[in-house]
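Section 5.1 Outputs to date
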Amino acid sequence: MTTQRNITFFYSPQTRAQVALNLLEELGAPYELRVLNMKAGEQRQPAYLAINPMGKVPAILDGDTLVTEQVAIFIHLADRLPQAGLAPALDDPLRGAYLRWLVFYAACYEPALTDRSQQRAPATPMQSPYGTFDDVMNVIEAQLAQGPYLVGGKLTAADILWGMALAWGMAFGLVPRRPVFVEYAERLCARPAARRVAERDAALAAEHEAAVKAAQA
């Protein structure tokens, strides 16, 4: 039986932390939300840098266990709460594929999108950690075309990550609006947990913007 511990979640609106908060909601995990106003620079203050010296969110404290980095948080939380059924067990034949798609996000998708957003000249395939941008898009499209989810026809934490990642990528014009991407992202973002988190995120973002304007007045 999993020991119940308190989960403290460090969060700021309009960041990647929204995706991890979505996972927490899908898992039904009790947590305490610690909100940082990045518009006011709170992520660069000593108190938070002691949590994550990179000054990034998300981060979690699970009891005394500190976890940073989006994919590490996803792996930790989905394994921590197996009753939600969002992670194949260690002895499940699907475990390898599940881990593959989580790590593919961090190792290939994020670097490819960053290079594309900064309009960097592409490295040669031998020098690039992800090959080419089109390689990344084609690989994930081929997997999603087998649908409806990434692994074994069943929703996992990997889908919670990728659904919002593709939605954001398309919203910013970085990811091509291929039909399989659009359908998958819309379906994942329409889930009740994702909608709750999106509404909460928008409200917090408005509060932070108002707070910064008030401080500058």
